[in-house]
Write a structure and sequence with these properties.
Elements: E1 4-5, H1 6-13, E2 16-18, E3 24-25, E4 27-28, E5 38-41, H2 49-53, E6 58-61, E7 72-74, H3 78-89, E8 104-105, E9 110-111, E10 116-117, E11 122-123, E12 128-129, E13 134-135, E14 140-141, E15 146-147, E16 152-153, E17 158-159, E18 164-165, E19 170-171, E20 176-179, E21 184-186, E22 191-193, E23 199-202, E24 207-208, E25 213-215, E26 221-224, E27 229-230, E28 235-236, E29 241-242, E30 247-248, E31 253-254, E32 259-260, E33 265-266, E34 271-272, E35 277-278, E36 283-284, E37 289-290, E38 299-301, E39 306-307, H4 308-319, H5 321-344
Parallel strand pairs: 4-5, 5-6, 6-7, 8-11, 9-12, 10-13, 11-14, 12-15, 13-16, 14-17, 15-18, 16-19, 17-20, 18-23, 19-24, 20-25, 23-26, 24-27, 25-28, 26-29, 27-30, 28-31, 29-32, 30-33, 31-34, 32-35, 33-36, 34-37, 36-38
Antiparallel strand pairs: 1-3, 2-7, 21-22, 38-39
Length: about 350
């Protein structure tokens, strides 16, 4: 692996270095596993004591740790600096060399330059793949699918008919894009399936984790906007819109026709009912159940979800409920005794 000097890494992340600028760094590792030619990172002061025993050649730290007597790369956001350096040393992505003779391609397909198609990939008719698209084994693309440049679909991803993926999209194994939305009309005795006639549109620079589902619109489209990052095991229903640069953590469920704004964070196991609007820059805490629209910029938690300060007050009171219950029972006994005494008095 080609080495980078400590100074070169500092310049890459917009930081400064303290120590030998020409120190060669050949990789990045955890603080308890790094060797003398590797760099590691410390994001919090409480972990600084681990620096003393680490064998790492250099450390990515925040300005508050700039006096540590070891070679340092000082960055205002050490976690972001770590991410950039990790990308530099990351091994190149795996690619099947060309098009496997075990893949199946439909008619009238358009393939860009340097496309990689692995074994057992199935591609429908009228599919368009951009330059350097990477399809791992077992990927299935329906008819009329369009995929932009530098997009990677990992094993056993399914993209159903007429859905569109942008540039530099990453979708991990087992995810299904464009399955039917959950639409059924009751006729009094049973349920009649509503045909799902829409599509899914995934914009540029989106990453979707493993075993997620993004349902096609009943009519129109389900849209995942630019820069959205979705964790594993997330369910997004028909006609949902996720705004730019939002984060959706594992096991979130979003019901149909809900609109999520820009730069929103949905923590693990959040549930959103259908036909509501989540404003821009909203942060929803883990396991929250959201049944009403949330204005821009709010932090909410709980089920039903409440503004953060209201939630904290409720939890503070909740802790005292056993004590309040005991006091209430004692007061009831006192009241009963007073009433009995009053009834027995002459």
């Amino acid at each position: 692996m080609v080495a980078k000097t400590l100074k070169e890494l500092a310049e890459l992340v917009g930081g400064t270095c303290r120590g030998p600028e020409d120190l060669p760094i050949r990789g990045l590792a955890a603080i308890d596993q790094a060797g003398p030619d590797q760099i590691t990172f410390v994001t919090r002061a409480k972990f600084a004591r681990q620096i003393e025993t680490s064998r790492a050649g250099a450390f990515i730290v925040s300005p508050e740790l700039d006096q540590v007597p070891r070679p340092l790369l000082i960055a205002s956001n050490p976690y972001l600096a770590y991410a950039k350096i990790a990308g530099l040393f990351a091994p190149p992505g795996r690619r099947w060399p060309g098009i496997s003779n075990q893949a199946s391609l439909g008619s009238n397909c358009t393939l860009g330059k340097d496309v990689s198609i692995g074994p057992f990939v199935s591609i429908g008719d009228n599919v368009s793949l951009g330059d350097r698209v990477n399809l791992f084994p077992g990927v299935v693309l329906g008819h009329g699918v369009t995929i932009g440049a530098d997009t990677a679909l990992y094993p056993n991803v399914t993209v159903n008919d007429n859905c569109t993926l942008g540039n530099r999209v990453i979708i991990h194994s087992g995810t299904v894009i464009g399955a039917d939305g959950f639409g059924f009309a009751p006729d009094g005795a049973a349920f009649y399936k509503i045909p799902q006639l829409g599509i899914v549109v995934i914009e540029d620079d989106v990453e979707i984790g493993a075993n997620c589902t993004v349902d096609r619109g009943a009519l129109g489209e389900t849209r995942i906007c630019r820069g959205v990052k979705i964790d594993n095991l997330v369910m997004i229903a028909h006609n949902v819109v996720i705004g730019e640069n939002s984060i959706i953590v594992a096991q979130v469920g979003i019901s149909g026709s809900t609109r999520v704004g820009r730069n929103v964070m949905l923590a693990g196991q959040v549930g959103l009912v259908g036909h509501i609007t989540i404003g821009d820059r909203v942060n929803i805490g883990a396991q929250s159940g959201v049944s009403n629209s949330v204005p821009d910029g709010q932090i909410v938690m709980g089920s039903p979800a409440l503004p953060l300060n209201d939630y904290k007050r409720m939890k503070a009171v909740q802790k005292k409920l056993p004590e309040v219950y005991d006091r209430l029972k004692a007061l009831e006994k006192q009241l009963a005794a007073l009433q009995a005494a009053k009834e027995n008095s002459p």
